[in-house]
Amino acid sequence: xxxxxxxxxxxxxxxxxxxxxxxxxxxxxxxxxxxxxxxxxxxxxxxxxxxxxxxxxxxxxxxxxxxxxxxxxxxxxxxxxxxxxxxxxxxxxxxxxxxxxxxxxxxxxxxxxxxxxxxxxxxxxxxxxxxxxxxxxxxxxxxxxxxxxxxxxxxxxxxxxxxxxxxxxxxxxxxxxxxxxxxxxxxxxxxxxxxxxxxxxxxxxxxxxxxxxxxxxxxxxxxxxxxxxxxxxxxxxxxxxxxxxxxx
Length: 248
Fold this sequence. Notes:
- The protein is of the alpha/beta class.
- It has helices at residues 31-40, 52-60, 104-110, 125-133, 154-170, 177-191, 201-208, 214-220, 240-246, and strands spanning 3-7, 22-26, 43-49, 66-72, 75-76, 95-100, 116-120, 141-145, 174-175, 229-232, 235-238.
- It has a single domain (3-233), classed as ComB-like (putative 2-phosphosulfolactate phosphatase, Alpha-Beta Complex).
- The chain has a 7-stranded mixed beta sheet, with helices on both faces. A 4-stranded mixed beta sheet has the order 3-6-4-5, sandwiched between helices.
- A hairpin with a 2-residue loop joins strand 10 and strand 11 (235-238).
- Helix 4 (125-133) crosses helix 5 and helix 5 packs across helix 6 (177-191).
- This is Probable 2-phosphosulfolactate phosphatase.
């Protein structure tokens, strides 16, 4: 029986222990939601980097057309589009994206040694669970909550619980204590239409920087974005085709 673990913030990740595991990184507000919307709007591949310096360095050596997105501690970065899914427009021609953030992209970097690494949010967590469930192995499943700059983040914990909820609907899994609590948190949040997330710490941070519609936008798209972001060879691509071909 496969084991499911939830790590409540990126700082607690033991990188070497992720080798051989299947992992998913969750940063509901905003990085992993933004990744999902970028893929949906024809931005691919996506390069998730630690900070603006790495983003600029990669941009200078990037031959393909691309956009830069980023924030640092909630603040905008000059020359970067803010990584808010509300701002992403449909791209007629496929274009790459380079994104950096305070929490989510750092969590992706810390989880990059996992055997398989997915990028999840409330907008697509149901598909991440389905893709994990369809794996033909017995690897442990590690759900990494990005957290909020070295602190616990309510929305990411609920996002992890979403994956646990869908996994346990599909089969039998051995759940850690944190996985059980995350599932209960998701069930409660879903039952109450995620009302608590409008008052979470990150929501107030976004309001302070005048991104007042971000929380509503993400929650309005709960399980409505049809992408499966997969981190592979240093970039994020949409792995959705593999899930559709295996469905009965």
